Each structure stands twice: as C-alpha cells, then as structure tokens.
C-alpha cells in the first residue's frame, strides 16, 4: 500500500514537523521504502526458528545495590552559581 503525500502530511503533523511539498513527497517515498522492507521481512519463512531475545549468550553482571557517597557537598556546590555554603540559592518565584 503506497503512502500518499496526504498520509505523509498527517504523520508530519503528528510529529509537529512543518514540511514543504517537496519534502513531503520525499518523506512519503522514504516511508514507502520502510514499509516495503517490513513486508519483505514479514514474508520470510521463520518456521522452526527459535526466537532470539538477545544476541549475547552470557548473563549481564549485576553490581551490588549498595548506597555510597560519590561526591562531597563542597564538590557539588562548587558548580552552583550561588550558594550559602550549605544549599543552592535560587531566585524566588512568586
């Protein structure tokens, strides 16, 4: 099913893109190519093929979930534009 310029315009609007007519034509052609490729993949015979959930055969190592202090207060406050020595100072918003 070919994608029309109107369909491409609807998708562009949903994506909040402003495209001129030339780009809409190109966008529709690219979407057509993607859908054609997906149809090709869908027509492949996968009978007897086990689903592949991960190409990696080993388990992912997990680190211990232990809380640790990474930076001191002084290191963190050193990057702040304004501090009182203990906390960030931000503009008052009313």
In summary, what is this structure?
With 94 residues, this protein is mostly helical. The protein is 39% helix and 0% strand.
Description of the molecule:
The protein has 94 residues and is an all-alpha fold. The protein has a domain of 38 residues. Helices cover 39% and strands 0% of the residues. The chain contains three helices and no strands. Helix 1 crosses helix 2. The longest helix is centred in the middle third of the chain and has 22 residues. The model has no long low-confidence stretch (mean pLDDT 89).
Could you list some keywords that capture this structure?
94 residues, mainly alpha, flat
List the helices and strands and how they pair.
Layout: H1 5-14, H2 21-42, H3 73-77
Helix pairs in contact: 1-2
Shape: flat
Question: What would you call the structural class?
Answer: mainly alpha
Q: What oligomeric state do the depicted chains represent?
A: single chain
Helix segment tally: 3
Major sheet description: none
Number of strands: 0
Q: State which percent range the strand residues make up.
A: under 5%
Mean pLDDT: 89
How much is the radius of gyration in Å?
27 Å
SSE ordering: HHH
Low-confidence stretches: none
Helix content: 25-40%
Distance between the termini: 55 Å
């Amino acid at each position: 099913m070919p994608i029309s310029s109107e369909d491409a315009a609807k998708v562009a609007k949903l994506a909040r893109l402003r495209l001129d007519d030339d780009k809409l034509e190109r966008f529709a052609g690219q979407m057509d190519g993607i859908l054609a490729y997906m149809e090709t993949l869908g027509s492949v015979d996968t009978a007897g093929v086990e689903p592949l959930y991960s190409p990696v055969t080993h388990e992912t190592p997990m680190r211990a979930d232990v809380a640790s202090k990474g930076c001191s207060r002084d290191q963190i406050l050193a990057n702040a534009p304004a501090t009182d020595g203990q906390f960030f100072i931000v503009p008052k918003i009313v």
